[in-house]
Design goal:
Blueprint lengths: L1 H27 L3 E6 L5 H16 L3 E6 L4 H13 L4 E4 L8 H9 L4 E4 L11 E5 L1 H15 L4 E7 L5 H14 L5 E8 L4 H14 L3 E6 L2 H13 L6 E3 L5 H9 L5 E3 L2 H18 L7 E4 L2 E3 L7 E2 L2 E2 H10 L1
Parallel strand pairs: 1-2, 1-3, 3-4, 4-5, 5-11, 6-7, 6-8, 8-9
Antiparallel strand pairs: 10-12, 13-14
Helix pairs in contact: 2-10, 5-6, 7-8
Length: 325
């Protein structure tokens, strides 16, 4: 009786193993969409990675999501892995406009089509598409609402992103294209907080101690803006005018609470979906049907429209733009 039971259990285990092997074999027969983002801890990058993976899976791909942590060397290794695994498409939020060129070129030469999202590279004709948010347009929109909230005068500070990041440079130029034209606005501090909330909190504490008459802070992303807001609340400065950039859910909630004045939504979800759709179209037809460089406008978010946004997406704008593509 025990022998029969043992044989039955063994047969069931064998059948389960065969079924599992069959499922794996069926899964691996699907084309691979390899997705590389700077970080999966940052909510913005996680949103774009999740959106890309979900869209790719709907279109019949299996997916692998990795992060390069803004390390060009790690990015190179991940791209080599994508080539070795015979990925069908590569979606990349790259580790640097200059440092990523050779890696993208290597993937393209290996027959792996590359679709860049969020960050462009300083070269054309290598990637199949470069789909990015209009950081300059978004920055000028945020700067205008900041200027108006400041009443066109007073001391302010700027928190900059990582200095090597192209988007950080574009945003600060956009801010200053507006603010530098206003004579009574005085920037008393400009410090990098490296996109970090904790670093922005610490820098803001120090800035507020050094400049008791500070009226506002303009930040290169929402994470830093939220750190600045927490420091302002801790210092009893709920009157401080703070704006950010990205359109994160936490920032939008802070706008609704009155802790932030505004942000610019960088449409991460929409861009990721467009990139997957174009990659799939390229695989089927040999063309994306779109120009290589595509600039997607940002949306200004303030208390008047904050309820229209969720998870880095303006619902009506995404639906309207996607329907036109």
């Amino acid at each position: 009786m025990r022998r029969m039971a043992h044989t039955l259990v063994a047969s069931m285990a064998c059948a389960s193993a065969l079924a599992l092997f069959g499922c794996r074999r069926e899964d691996y027969s699907r084309p691979l969409a390899f997705i590389i983002v700077p970080s999966q801890d940052n909510p913005f990058f996680k949103a774009e990675a999740d959106a890309a993976a979900q869209r790719a899976q709907v279109l019949g791909y299996r997916t692998r999501v990795e992060a390069h942590d803004d390390d060009a060397y790690r990015q190179d290794n991940l791209i080599d892995s994508a080539i070795a695994e015979n990925a069908a498409i590569l979606l990349l939020d790259n580790a640097g406009a200059d440092s990523s060129i050779s890696a993208v070129r290597r993937a393209t030469k290996a027959g792996l089509p590359v679709f860049l999202i969020d960050r462009a590279i300083e070269a054309d004709g290598i990637a199949r598409a470069q789909i990015i948010a209009d950081n300059s347009q978004g920055a000028t929109a945020v700067a205008k609402i900041f200027m108006n909230a400041m009443g066109g005068e007073g001391e302010y500070a700027e928190l900059l992103g990582r200095e090597s990041d192209t988007n950080a440079q574009i945003r600060t130029r956009g801010f200053h294209s507006i603010l530098d034209r206003v004579p009574k606005l005085q920037m008393v501090e400009a410090q990098s907080a490296n996109w970090s909330q904790s670093e922005a909190f610490q820098k803001t504490e120090t800035i507020l101690q050094s400049h008791p008459h500070l009226k506002g802070i303009i930040a290169g992303n929402d994470t830093m803006a939220l750190g600045a807001a927490a420091a302002a609340i801790g210092a009893g400065r709920k009157d401080l005018i703070i704006v950010g950039f990205d359109g994160s859910p936490d920032a939008i909630a802070a706008i609704q609470r009155g802790e932030l004045k505004a942000t610019a939504l960088q449409p991460a979800v929409l861009i990721a979906r467009l990139a997957v759709d174009e990659a799939n179209h390229f695989r089927r037809t040999g063309s994306t049907g779109e120009p290589e460089r595509q600039i997607i406008p940002c949306d200004l978010v303030d208390a008047s429209n904050a309820s229209e946004f969720r998870n880095f997406e303006h619902i009506s704008s995404s639906a309207n733009l996607a329907s036109k593509r």
